[in-house]
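Blinded run. Sample ID left blank on purpose so nobody reads anything into the name before looking at the predicted structure. Input follows.
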Amino acid sequence: MQVNGISMNVVDQREGPAVLLVHGFPDDHRLWRYQAPALLAAGYRVIAPDMRGYGESDAPHGTRAYAVAELVADLVGVLDALGVEHVKLVGHDWGAAQLLPSEHRTHLPTPAPPMTVPVLGVWSDGDRYLCERQMTDCAEWVPDFRYERVCGASHWLPLDAPDRVNRLLLDFFR
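Blinded prediction complete.
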């Protein structure tokens, strides 16, 4: 798919309420291989792009090509190309930081404090890259923040604790 001046690999499965799965560093759309089947079985449309520089998507040169504004424009372009007006956003690692500025509110929630949409934050005691306080401090910016702590998994919760992550997502989306 051509989006924002680059070619992006995008997995788009089924019809229904759209869920945009955004991976982080250093992954690609396959990070969500255990969540996609659960979401599809629950009637959701699953959209999982390879972000620029990852997987089968183009990797433009230069650091400016990876500014948050470019990454967000990629996501908006994907949703526009697919005709998706509203989406539930699921992000991991850097992918969780891809909340859109206010001019794109029809697609995704915005990071303008305070955030006006419900947010689920999931953290594991085995995460070596994000400390628990970084996650729980999100409640300062998000009045409707739900925090879940998972024990025994690493930073890669979608892979290490897929059943728990799937249950949390499906419960949160209800």
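Unblinding after everyone has recorded impressions. The CA atoms of residues 114 and 141 lie 5 Å apart.
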